[in-house]
Design a protein that fits this description.
Blueprint (H helix, E strand, L loop, with lengths): L26 H14 L8 E4 L9 E5 L5 E5 L5 H4 L3 E5 L4 E6 L8 H11 L11 E8 L2 E8 H13 L4 E5 L10 E7 L2 E5 L5 E5 L7 H12 L6 E5 L3 H11 L3 E4 L18 E2 L4 H51 L8 H16 L6 H12 L7 E7 L2 E8 L2 H13 L2 E11 L2 E10 L3
Parallel strand pairs: 1-4, 4-8, 6-14, 9-12, 12-13
Antiparallel strand pairs: 1-2, 2-3, 5-7, 6-7, 9-10, 10-11, 15-16, 16-18, 17-18
Helix pairs in contact: 7-8
Length: 442
């Protein structure tokens, strides 16, 4: 990777802030907020647009773009089509700005944090700048740790411009925009720079002239031959016949011209990040893919909250109305009693009245309901008297013997009653007794 150029000294423009001045909102403010909403609601499943940065970007703001439907153009970012502004954009950065390499780490599987700390030391022999000024993006594979190293200053400059334009972008070196297949290298010459891809996550950039093959490409091919990994051919993208013949003659390999545009293949393995980390999927891209679901969830939660608030207000008014009505009824029914809790006091008052009349849960009707199946089985004339007093039913019975009296008591108790037998008298005709029954307390 080359040393960051002096173009990176440009001051980074901060994010545009949109505010409300005074007590009114201008049409310009509303337009800005509309733009923000449109950017945030970009369709997650749509194919991204490609944006190719020149080597001296952002000092030179003229870029080249291509849409998923074949739309192409070249000009300043301000002239970017509206459809691109509403879509996700893949920004292809100059190949010379990013070092693509492979690192071997014996501590694989011990956590991303430790790997991120170890990368600067694993690659110190390949780095030409202070590691603190570099951003490391990486991807772990069975073949090793594939790493992309880019100057933080350059990334910050690119990102500042894109954020000022309110564009949803992901950055990737143009090296990985070149299609690749095994045993074949790919190359491209544009804007005075060469981009060479040598593997699924490897490649390099070099500056040079169109009239000669760069020395970096010759050296890379020599090392590949020594390592037994030399390509069988080279594919040239975007070059003319003269360039194809030049490369074939200088390198001694078959060179195949391919007129297809680059950047339309599969999703690249690296997305450059200012803070480093795995580049297979960035948090921003993941959130963008989840935006429709998040919006739907937010709407459901907002509607549910609004419905809850509405029901709470409605029930609060209903509670106040019912409480006032109960207070009025309680005051009219029990004029001498203080009003503390009208509902509770009213239930207690009704229970007392019902108990006094024999209609409460422990009253005459309740006890008689449990006792009637047993009393109905007595012989004619065995039940001589029935009375209710203080929550208990008293009945006088005349039975044949003591065994019949004991059986009667057991049957009543089995029906859930508390039974007490008193005033037992024996005579020639049998036994006479007073049986007091009440419901058992739960």
């Amino acid at each position: 990777m080359g040393t960051p150029s002096g173009h990176g000294q440009t001051h980074i423009r901060g994010l545009m802030r949109v505010g409300i001045r005074g007590h009114s909102v201008s049409s310009q403010d509303l337009a800005k907020w509309k733009d923000y909403v449109q950017v945030w609601l970009r369709a997650p499943g749509a194919a991204p647009w490609s944006l190719f940065l020149p080597p001296d970007f952002p000092e030179t703001r003229v870029v080249t773009w291509r849409g998923p439907e074949g739309e192409t153009g070249c000009g300043p970012l301000s002239e970017l089509p509206e459809a691109a502004r509403r879509a996700s954009i893949r920004v292809w950065t100059p190949a010379i700005e990013t070092l693509l390499t492979v690192a071997q780490w014996p501590g694989r599987g011990r956590g991303r944090g430790r790997l991120a700390q170890a990368l600067p030391y694993l690659l110190e022999e390949q780095l030409l700048a202070d590691p603190d000024t570099l951003a490391f993006s990486y991807r772990e594979t069975d073949a090793g740790i594939f790493v992309a190293v880019t100057a933080k200053e350059r990334l910050s400059a690119w990102r500042a411009v894109m954020e000022a334009e309110r564009l949803g972008v992901s950055f990737c070196p143009v090296t990985l925009a070149l299609p690749w297949r095994p045993r074949t290298w790919s190359c491209r010459f544009a804007d005075g720079q060469w981009a060479i891809r040598t593997g699924p996550y490897s490649g390099f950039g070099a500056t040079g002239l169109l009239a000669q093959v760069p020395a970096a490409l010759r050296q890379a091919l020599t090392e590949a031959v020594k390592g037994g990994a030399a390509p069988d051919s080279i594919t040239l993208f975007g070059g003319d016949e003269a360039l194809r013949l030049l490369i074939a003659r200088d390198l001694g390999l078959p060179v195949i011209a391919d007129a297809r545009p680059i950047g339309d293949g599969e999703t690249p393995g690296f997305r450059l990040s200012e803070t480093g980390g795995a580049v297979s999927a960035t948090g921003r891209a993941a959130l963008r893919a989840l935006r429709p679901a998040l919006i739907a969830l937010a709407l459901v939660l907002a509607l549910g909250f609004a419905r809850t608030v509405f029901d709470w207000v409605r029930l609060s008014h209903e509670e106040a109305r019912v409480n006032a009505e109960m207070t009025s009824i309680f005051t009219a029914s029990f004029p001498n009693a203080p009003v503390l809790d009208p509902a509770r006091q009213m239930r207690q008052g009704v229970a007392k009245l019902a108990a006094r009349a024999g209609g409460a849960g422990q009253g005459f009707l309740a006890v008689l309901t449990d006792a009637s199946p047993v009393l109905a089985g007595l012989a004619h004339g065995a039940l001589t008297r029935l009375a209710y007093r203080h929550g208990a039913v008293r009945c006088a019975v005349r039975l044949a013997n003591f065994d019949a009296l004991t059986a009667l008591k057991h049957h009543l108790m089995r029906n859930g009653l508390s039974v007490r037998v008193t005033h037992v008298l024996s005579h020639q005709g049998g036994v006479q007794a007073l049986v007091t029954m009440s419901r058992r307390s739960p």
